[in-house]
Design a protein that fits this description.
9 helices, alpha+beta, two-stranded antiparallel ribbon, five-stranded mixed sheet, single chain
């Protein structure tokens, strides 16, 4: 019984020795990588960020922050997080998934609405990157817009399935053909970031009455759903001079959509259905 115990102990010591050598190699590799990063010359990029605090008796202003691109991730959101962590903890912005899924970090970057997590930092260090909140919306603080009106408009279209009839006993789900399901492509992917709506001049001037591209595309998503039984009601609700027809096909909405959707086309389809 003694020999197997000694043999097992020898094996354990050998494994431990290998693990120690592997750990030492990893530490050396990490140190080398860090040394290489430190040895690179600084690549300073300036970010001019919109700042406004309602608790301070001060007008909005732009604050400039230098960021070393050699020590920062590739996205605008990486730079904002780095600024908040290392330079100014009072900087306020929304973010969540960092994958272009939640829509939280929508903002105006260098004059265009987009998601900070999907926008790459420009390599040109001679030109500062300017970051503002989404345009023509009330600002809560810094880069955080008030989305209350936008969400209330979304709620008004009743964005849930209203089936033609109740489920039968034992029925698990409402089915549809593959062809009918395919009609929803290009609409269900919308993440309600409001980039499209806040790029639309018609929405700028009539946000209290015009529903805007994002909400109208979601309305059409349910109009086009073969499982829904309230198509006529939904169309009647939208048949309004302001809710729908403030759209003048400027197409800014389609141009800026970070998910590459086409709200302008969806709005045109609603008008087409009402015309027929």
């Amino acid at each position: 019984m003694l020999k197997p115990t000694l043999r097992n102990r020898a094996v354990s010591q050998s494994v431990l020795s290998q693990a120690t050598r592997s750990l030492s190699t990893s530490e050396a590799s990490l140190k080398t990588g860090a040394d290489e990063a430190l040895s690179k010359p600084e690549k300073i990029k300036y970010f001019k960020v919109y700042r406004w605090d309602p608790e301070q008796n001060q007008k909005p202003y732009l604050s400039t922050y230098p960021v070393d691109l050699n020590d920062c991730g590739p996205m605008i959101l990486d730079a904002l997080i780095k600024i908040k962590n290392e330079q100014d903890p009072t900087l306020t912005f929304r973010r969540s998934c960092r994958e272009g899924i939640c829509g939280s970090c929508a903002m105006n970057i260098n004059g265009a609405n987009t998601l900070a997590c999907l926008a790459y930092i420009e390599d040109d260090t001679a030109k500062a990157t300017k970051i503002y909140p989404l345009p023509h919306m009330y600002v809560v603080k810094d880069l955080v817009p008030d989305m209350g009106n936008f969400y209330e408009q979304y709620r008004s279209i009743e964005p849930w399935l209203q089936p033609k009839e109740e489920k039968e006993e034992g029925q698990a789900e409402f089915l549809q053909t593959k062809e009918d399901r395919a009609k929803l492509d290009g609409m269900y992917e919308c993440i309600l970031c409001a980039c499209c709506s806040t790029s639309c001049p018609s929405y700028w001037w009539n946000a209290d009455k015009y529903l805007g591209p994002a909400v109208l595309m979601q309305a059409y998503r349910w109009i086009e759903d073969s499982r829904d039984g309230s198509t006529a009601k939904r169309l009647a609700e939208l048949d309004d001079a302001f809710k729908l027809y403030r759209c003048h096909t400027i197409m800014n909405c389609t141009k800026v959509c970070p998910k590459h959707l086409n709200p302008g086309k969806a709005i045109a389809q609603i008008k087409k259905k009402l015309a027929h």
